[in-house]
Amino acid sequence: MLRFWGLFLLFFGVLWAQAPKDPYIGSQACRGCHLVQTQDFFRNAHTKADRGCEGCHGPGRAHVNSGGKKEAIIAFSTLTSQKSLDNCLQCHSKDMSRANIRRSSHTQSEVVCVNCHSIHKSATPKHLLAHQQKDLCYSCHTDVKAQFSMPFKHRVNEGTVQCSDCHNPHGAPASNWRMGQRPRMQQHAQSNEQSCVQCHADKRGPFLFEHAALRVDGCNSCHAPHGSANPRLLNRPVIFTLCLECHNGAAGFGRTGEGIPTQPGSHNMADPRYQNCTICHVKIHGSNADAKFLR
Amino acid sequence: MRPLLLLCALIFTAGLSAQPVVAPTPQRAGDAKGEDLAGYNIVNSFESGYRFRAVDGNLGKFRSDVNFGNGIRLLGSHLTVHSKKPGTGKFFDEIVLSTQGLGNDPYQFSSLRVSKAKLYRYDGTWRLMDYFNPALTIANGQHLINTTRQLQDHDIVLLPQNRFRFLLGYSRNQQDGPAFSTLQFPDGRGDEFTYLLNVRRTRNEYRLGTEFEVLKTKFHVLHGWEYFRDDTRAPLFSPGAGANPNDTNTLRQFRRDEPNHGQAPYWRVGLHNEAFKSFTVDARFTNTTGQRNFVFDELALGTGRFSSAQNRQVFVGGNARRPVTTGNVTLSWFPLERLTITNHTALYNTRMEGEGTYGEVNNAVAGLQILHFQYLGIRTFANLTDANFKLNRWLGLFSGYHFSERRIGSSQFEDIEAPARLDRAEQTNRLHSGLLGVRLQPVKQLRFSVDGELGRADRPFYTISEKDYHTVAARAQWKTKRWSLLSKFQTNYNLNSTSLFVHSARTRLASIDGTWSPRSFVVLEAGYGHTHIETVTGLAYFSLGELVENDRSFYRSRLRQTRLGAQINVAKRADIYLGYHRIQDAARLGVALMDQAFPLTYETPLARFSLQLHKKMRWNLGWQYYNYKEKLLTLQDYNAHTGYSSLSWSF
Which residue from A48, A192, A213 is facing B288, i.e. has the nearest CB? Predict the structure, then answer.
């Protein structure tokens, strides 16, 4: 009988020894070498991940057994941008705001999650950004940085407006306030409109008499939202050239193809009185009382 | 020699932020690791101090651009509370609170997150902006705005790590304050009179939704209710003289009420499916049924051109509707490990409709008109296909073909006087564009990318819309632990022309930015960028009674931006920051009426000093100078010194 039990234990002992071990080793093992990354990790939102460190970095046993070889674990610094994106999207793809991430301009330029987010050394506890949001965006969009240095601008540098109030860095659906192609990364307001009306709700309408420019080509037809020399963030320093550039009656344009109407003969453009169009056309975004936006 | 070099570097170098704001101080007091208390780790820091300013020149323009004033402020605060063992907090596992400018700053911000693992997560932001804008260049100060805008957003996710999650949200946007506007009296040929507006606008939005997963498909369903109220009033008052001294029209009394209330309930449904390894589907459907009810009541009394008594009351009432429906489907296909193909199809449909009545009593003669709403329907279809191919570790290619078609249908009455003539029209525009890009990474530290896009539209709505356009963008980046260099070049060109008309717009920008950290305690930054914009557009207008048809408007902008900065840490106790930022539009001031440019110079040097007095306390001192000069309206020029002294502490 003893011989039987001896053979039985030996047989299953050999089987156990040859069985493949669990490739996961647990976050405790990581602390030995990666103390800096792990000691404050309780503050990190990823601490809720089911497998701790191995939730993002994959099974760690082989990495430990190899004495810390980078090839034996998922090290984000060695991944291609595509692989890096795939790894994060394993958990983060369910959010609606990331539905267009694979076709976003950022992904197409190989700017993926780890280029903006820093999981272990984030400057912001929320969203784990590598720097404050404006500095992060400015670091590549230097032309936008110049626009926000103009005298009139949205208060991004002052900290009350953020780039993500208007833009979705993870990609947005096709815009529906222009021709669909551009702009590509602009956030849609709750009612599927240009993000501007989220704050400027009084400009949304609907109005009895609508200035079609808002609906057809968007607010950018007249406005430079990042910054301008004009007090109303207009694309031109003064108003009359901005208006006249469309209201010139050029054939082929407008509703009927007969051009956008020119101003009447009573408007003498040589007289400064007629050069500030919105002095009289005060309801230029739309009016419920006057077809010419006078009240 | 070395200290001299360092001093020169400090003087001639500075910050990456665009026109940065000197306070609050980025350095925080206290131990970054925080302190443990009752199972939680707490990190906190407060910065409180006194701001001052001294303005020479146009104070209104300073308030419009900068607006910082004198007084005591809570310049900034940061608090994080985390349970040491995740998920073990009794009521919460995490609190993150940040504030900026509370007390009396014109720009105030606070953000709060509270969460308990597996139970709830709350995110809230509150913002206040004090907005002052005299609008001298566009309305001679007659359209001044002096309002305060408050924005709030609150979102709660219940069971955030569950397969079924519940979403609750509330947002509020409020604008209050006085403003000026103008009206013409007694008719379209009358004088312009300035009147007071009491702005009161509120937008409330409530959200309720859920996210769940069924058959490897994740669903997102959200219903929202949005309510908008505009109760802006022009109270009864006597305006006095008009804007034109030679005009004999007068306005003795004026009052206007135009309440405008509306709601926009909406649905949003999304799904994400990744059941197949090489294929994902994302879809989104939204529907909004916006509606607004309005009345307009205006009373104006005065005299006409020949001193004849004029009185007028206008009363308008009605409602307007604008349903909007959108649908988007994004298909992502990964036929190879290195190849991603995406196709995005979008449909958008909206129409505006409603009705109104227009009544006017003019010099005791009553008239009533039925206003027919100007119908505007827009339907857009877009199909965008992109392919991203990584040939090997150092070479990647990107290409795309985008197509969209937009149909605009409209009907409007030419005149509200009987017999009204209905004018119907339809316009269709198709836009095709192709994209191509190359990415190179010969070594890990160096990246190049070049992108181009070519687009052709057959019938743009406006003379300035994109028609035949192309863009080219190139970028090179070198990044090591000590060095970072980024250079960029981009050009956009659009030509919109018919046989007798031309609009041409060209933008070219180039920039180079660099950061150098020769030692662990020194960072030097510098950048230069220029943006050139040139547009030419055909014009037709009346001048001295004659129609001018062959004129052109020219607009030129030559923006040059210089940024310099230096940051140095002395003996791990003191931090010094010196910065200089200058933006200049160097375009030549136009010589003709339609020759437009806006030359200006706007510069802000700044210096900040922060000293650690104690482990939990720092003393901060900062100064910033603003110098604004323009050539079009020199009375807007100003220069201002702003600064602050504050204590940052942690307890």
Answer: A192
**Residue reference for tokens 């650690």:** B612
- Distance of residue A16 Cα from the nearest chain B Cα, in angstroms: 33
CB contact under 8 A, A192 and B326: yes
pTM: 0.91
Phi, psi angles (nearest 5°) of residue B636: -85, -10
For residue range B106-147, list pLDDT tens digits in order. Answer: 999 999 999 998 899 999 999 999 999 988 888 888 899 999
* Coil, helix or strand at residue A123: coil
Which residues have a Cβ under 8 Å from the Cβ of B387 and sit 6 or more positions away? Answer: B339, B340, B341, B342, B398, B399, B400
B350 Cβ contact partners less than 8 Å away, ≥ 6 residues apart: A176, A215, B322, B323, B324, B325, B377, B378, B379
**CA–CA distance, A104 with A85 (Å, rounded to integer):** 12
Using CB atoms within 10 A of its CB, is residue B443 exposed (0-12), middle (13-18) or buried (19+)? exposed
CB < 8 Å to B324, chain A: 191-193
Residues 6+ apart with CB under 8 A from B306: B248
Pairing of strands B250-257, B217-230: unpaired
Q: Which residues of A90-107 are buried (b: 16+ CB within 10 A; e: fewer)?
A: eeebbbbbbbbbbbbbbb
* A71 CB burial (10 A radius; 0-12, 13-18, 19+): exposed
Asked if A142 and B476 touch (Cβ cutoff 8 Å), the reply is: no
Q: How far apart are CA B252 and CA B238, in angstroms?
A: 5
Structure tokens at A212: 């079609």
Phi and psi dihedrals of A48, rounded to 5? -80, -10
**Positive or negative CA dihedral for A47, A51, A55, A61?**
positive
- Give alpha helix (H) positions in chain A: 2-18, 28-31, 35-39, 53-57, 61-65, 81-92, 105-108, 113-116, 133-138, 142-147, 163-166, 196-199, 212-216, 239-246
Q: How far is A7 from chain B (nearest CA, A)?
A: 46
User: pLDDT tens digits, residue range B398-427?
Assistant: 999 999 999 999 887 655 565 566 778 899
> What is the rounded CA–CA span in Å between residue B451 and residue B398?
8
Q: Are A285 and A203 in contact (CB under 8 A)?
A: yes
Entry field: residues in chain A: 295
CB contact under 8 A, A99 and B282: yes
ipTM: 0.91
Q: Kindly write down the DSSP assignment for every residue of B466-531, as one continuous string.
A: -SEEEEEEEEEEEE-SSEEEEEEEEEEEEEEE-SS-EEEEEEEEEEEEEEEEEETTEEEEEEEEEE
B244 lies within 8 A of chain A by CB? yes
User: Which residue in chain B has the smallest CA separation from A289?
Assistant: B316
